[in-house]
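Translate structure to sequence.
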């Protein structure tokens, strides 16, 4: 419910802040959006979008290299890296300017500057020209995002050690790169630079890459990327980086098989991100925090009833689409509605080759919750469209409640898995059953047919497999 015109100040214009600003303006709020860097935040400028320009180039490059399979003789598949980086920037700029136009059209007052709290309702913005501006708010949304975690490893400050932002602004393709951290971002950069010709080593502290993903999905992807020539050390740590001599650093890895020295041109630190909540005066307001993240209730409200928070700075999922949904719900509540944030069906996408899309519970998680489950798994190799596209790696797996067939989760490894997971996300959100998927006609030939086949398999009646 709109309680009349409210002054809403939003700090941070990433996918949480700018989406929250548009939604609040739709609801009639008088919105001021403060951003110290660039509209679009990490996502548009140094995250989701720039990386996907590079994964798309990696995919196109390897498709061209394998064009002979279709009888296509393609010559000269060299990468013009500086042209690619220009395209990456052009795509980001285009999206940023699109968002700026949307904000303008909605009447959002945008201020470029760094915000700090003066008190519970007053915010000071340090503008680019070093002057300050004071804002008074009825309601506030903190959407300040996250920053990369630094590792306390000797030598980590050496030249040539980069984070994800550094990996998105290289001027040439490195000959070799060691990636610390085998999570989604580390694996995506491994795929990108390996496709461009870089020799890649991944070092992951835990026993599987992509910790948190279904074990079968993670181990299948591991097999696939190891076959492509990427070296992976799991249950291993980088203990030291010795600065470069003749362009190469020595990285000391404490691996399960003993100490290993790797000589590489670049080290990419990709061990996760932490909430960006420092230097804003949050402590003096008495906002409840937990190890740097802002604590909110299921309405995205902090312990101060007029202050809400959304996105990476509340530390739930660290995904752009979750940040946006949280922000929509937070501002709806700020405007007087009564909405609860529901995390039952959060799709997670990993843009490697093959891709991963997952949602809800995997088999192990469901069993750990004491649920009786049945699963259906269908291999991509048995799908006509996958054969036509020569994209036969992977599978669709559906986890459903044993008696009712209610879908609890799904994991897809395969080409376009990040798009395919949408159907199963909607299924879980709506409480659908395997029978609902079975009753839905899936177009032929498409990569979506394996989704229906996995549902059929869960019910013991697959058509295109035994
Ligand atoms: C390399 C990489 C790839 C990624 N790929 C994906 C992906 O494919 N899919 C996905 O869902 N997620 C991806 N992510 C994660 C995604 O980018 C984040 O989850 C998302 O950007 C979080 O949105 P946010 O609005 O919470 O924060 P952010 O996007 O970080 O935005 C916060 C904004 O607040 C501003 N700010 C901070 N403090 C202040 C202040 N005091 N005053 C004013 N402004 C301030 C910052 O400058 C920033 O612009 C990726 C991240 C990285 C690093």
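Result:
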């Amino acid at each position: 419910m709109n309680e009349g015109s409210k002054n809403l100040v939003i700090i941070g214009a990433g996918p949480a802040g700018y989406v929250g600003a548009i939604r609040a303006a739709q609801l009639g709020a008088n919105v001021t959006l403060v951003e110290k860097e660039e509209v679009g935040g990490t996502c548009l400028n140094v995250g989701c979008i720039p990386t996907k320009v590079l994964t798309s180039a990696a995919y196109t490059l390897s498709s061209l290299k394998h064009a002979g399979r279709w009888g296509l003789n393609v010559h000269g598949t060299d990468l013009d890296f500086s042209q690619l980086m220009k395209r990456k920037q052009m795509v980001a700029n285009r999206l940023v300017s699109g968002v700026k136009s949307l904000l303008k059209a909605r009447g959002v007052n945008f201020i470029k500057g760094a915000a700090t709290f003066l008190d519970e309702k007053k915010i000071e913005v340090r503008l680019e020209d070093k002057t300050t501006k004071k804002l008074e708010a009825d309601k506030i949304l903190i959407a300040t995002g996250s920053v990369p975690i630094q590792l306390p490893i000797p030598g980590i400050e050496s030249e040539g050690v980069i984070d994800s932002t550094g990996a998105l602004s290289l001027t040439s393709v490195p000959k070799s790169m060691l990636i610390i951290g085998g999570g989604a971002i580390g694996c995506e950069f491994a795929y990108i630079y390996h496709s461009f010709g870089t020799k890649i080593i991944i070092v992951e502290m835990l026993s599987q890459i992509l910790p948190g993903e279904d074990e079968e999905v993670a181990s299948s992807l591991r097999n696939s990327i190891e076959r492509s020539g990427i070296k992976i050390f799991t249950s291993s740590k980088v203990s030291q980086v010795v600065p470069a001599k003749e362009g190469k650093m020595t990285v000391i890895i404490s691996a399960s098989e003993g100490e290993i020295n790797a000589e590489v041109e670049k080290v990419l630190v990709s061990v996760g991100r932490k909430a960006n909540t420092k230097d804003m005066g949050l402590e003096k307001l008495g906002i409840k925090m937990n190890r740097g993240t802002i604590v909110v209730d299921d309405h995205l409200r902090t312990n101060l009833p007029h202050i809400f928070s959304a996105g990476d700075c509340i530390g739930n999922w660290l995904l752009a689409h979750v940040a946006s949904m949280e922000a929509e719900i937070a501002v709806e509540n700020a405007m007087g509605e009564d909405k609860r944030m529901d995390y039952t069906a959060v799709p997670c996408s990993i843009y490697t080759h093959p891709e991963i899309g997952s949602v809800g519970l995997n088999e192990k998680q469901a069993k750990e919750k004491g649920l009786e489950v049945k699963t259906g798994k269908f291999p991509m190799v048995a799908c006509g469209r996958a054969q036509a596209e020569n994209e036969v790696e992977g599978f669709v797996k559906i986890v459903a409640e044993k008696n009712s067939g209610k879908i609890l989760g799904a994991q897809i490894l395969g080409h376009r898995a990040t798009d395919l997971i949408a159907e199963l996300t909607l299924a879980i959100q709506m409480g659908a059953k395997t029978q609902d998927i079975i009753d839905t006609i899936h177009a032929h030939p498409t990569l979506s047919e394996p989704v229906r086949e996995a549902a059929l398999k869960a019910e013991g009646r697959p058509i295109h497999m035994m």
